[in-house]
Amino acid sequence: MTTRSTASSALVLFSGGQDSATCLAWALDRYERVETVGFDYGQRHSVELQARQDVRAAMAKLHGGERLGEDFVIDLTGYGAIADSALTADRAIEMEASGLPSTFVPGRNLVFLTVASALAYRRGHGVLVGGMCETDYSGYPDCRRTTIDAMQSALSLGLDTGMAVETPLMHLDKAETWALAESLGGADLVEIIRTQTHTCYRGERGELHDWGYGCGTCPACELRAKGWQAWPGSVPA
Ligand code: ZN
Q1: Angle at Cα 211 formed by Cα 205 and Cα 216, nearest 5°?
Q2: What's the gap in Å between 210 CA and the centre of ligand 1?
């Protein structure tokens, strides 16, 4: 049965990457009950789906981890087939004539938020939490807060109930995202995010760098490494 939400619970869009793991910690700090949702849209790397289980298991043991509830993985491979990009098909990661990188999956956050809102409605959550960020990202138009604001309005109208979309990382750069993680969960949380989350577009997890696992050369790895190095807390004591 559905019970309508109070702001005491939230559904976190959780991919197993650095950003969504930080969002999960943020939600566990604020809401009494937190559930997670992930989407399988035919990513080339099932390593991402494994990482989210590992991160969840590790974070459940931290302070606030008892608030972590169920996890849902929703099959969106039909959407992935439409959205064809360098993440879901065998294409090079490069800039395209549109000015967007080939990793841009058209409409991804619009689809994810719509599907997540249906799940949130059924599970009694009035809050969605997502790691969208417009600061030092690749300029994905569906990561902008103006897009999220419009989605929040559309979802709340279409569901006829308040459906807030919280984006705690929206105005943070990657170094500030590490700082947020530390402020939420100290060194233990930073270590979970550093070693368990997955960001690399190529699905590489062979070598542990100081900033985590990854190929080190794809745009996601470069951004992650740059953010780690810019964060004062990354300097070994
Ligand atoms: Zn990489």
Answers
A1: 55
A2: 14
- pLDDT, tens only, 145-193: 999 999 999 999 999 999 999 999 999 999 999 999 999 999 999 999 9
CA of 44 to the centre of ligand 1 (A): 13
In this predicted structure, what is the pLDDT of residue 102? 61
Rounded CA gap, 57 and 39, in Å?
18
Q: Are 216 and 225 in contact (CB under 8 A)?
A: yes
CA 221 – ligand 1 centroid, Å: 4
Say how many C-beta atoms besides its own lie within 10 A of residue 48's C-beta: 20
Task: Establish if 23 belongs to a structural domain.
Answer: yes
Number of domains in the chain: 1
Take residue 205 and report the two structure tokens written for it.
């997890």
* Helical axes 47-59 vs 174-196, angle rounded to 10°: 90
Q: Which two tokens stand for residue 198?
A: 């997955």
C-alpha 144 to ligand 1 mean position (Å): 24
Among 45-54, 118-127, 202-211, name the most confident range. Answer: 118-127
Sign of CA dihedral 72, 73, 79, 85: positive
State in Å: Cα 194 to ligand 1 middle: 14
Q: Answer whether residue 206 is part of any domain.
A: no
Output the CA 224–ligand 1 centroid distance in Å: 9
219 located within any domain: no
Residue 214 within any structural domain of the chain: no
- Look up the domain containing 25 and give its range: 9-198
How many angstroms is it from 148 CA to the middle of ligand 1?
Answer: 27
Compute, in angstroms, the gap from residue 22 CA to the centroid of ligand 1: 19
- Between the CA of 157 and the centroid of ligand 1 the distance, in Å, is 39
